[in-house]
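Before the break, one more example. Copy the sequence into your notebook; we will annotate it together after we see the structure.
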Amino acid sequence: MRLLFCFILLTALAPVQAQKKLAKVNVECVKINGPTLEGEEIIFQSEKTGAVVKGVTGPDGRFSCELTGPDQYKIIVKSLTGLTDYSRFILPTIDNEKLYPTYEITVEIEPATEYTLDNVYFETASASLKKESFAELNELVYFMQRKPKARIEIGGHTDNVGSEESNLTLSENRARAVRQYLLDRGISPFRVAAKGYGECQPIANNLTEEGRQQNRRTAVKVLGE
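Here is what the structure looks like once it is written out:
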């Protein structure tokens, strides 16, 4: 009897834990001062556990998901070449007998129209892609799959080592190699153009090896969506 009394007493003194509950979240992604955006991947990351819930906006620029509270979530926007920490969303502690309302979240962004693919590599003086390029090129494939209306240009660029003519040819061949990688994975040829710019659009000084390395690059330009 004494043991039972102690158990009841300890139970009565224990703090009441908030029950974990699901909240429905409707997400809309829009261009700043513009229309809704299809194919944008939005990520919610729990700051308690690191768990991730993500979705991709449909043709109406929206998707729905469920998040567990109470918790605080980072809202992260995925672009072609990285992640942007956009904002925070808090699911507060509520009474155990209550339910979360449905939340409406609008994410406003200004999508980039030009990207440099920093991890695309070719064999020296060649248009043969190195296998280290495949991870970033697969992200480009995924980008095109998420955005079925997008049209892009692959731009090849070189440093100024060698003749201007040979650099132009090399840049064209490299741009075509990247384009072919996308076509081989199901992207429509009508959505991907390739153009070589040779050495005529440097972004750094060709007098240093570091500068020349920056100038040897593959760029992606979004032509339309």
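The mean pLDDT is 92. DSSP finds four helices and eleven strands in the chain. Try to locate both features in your own notes.
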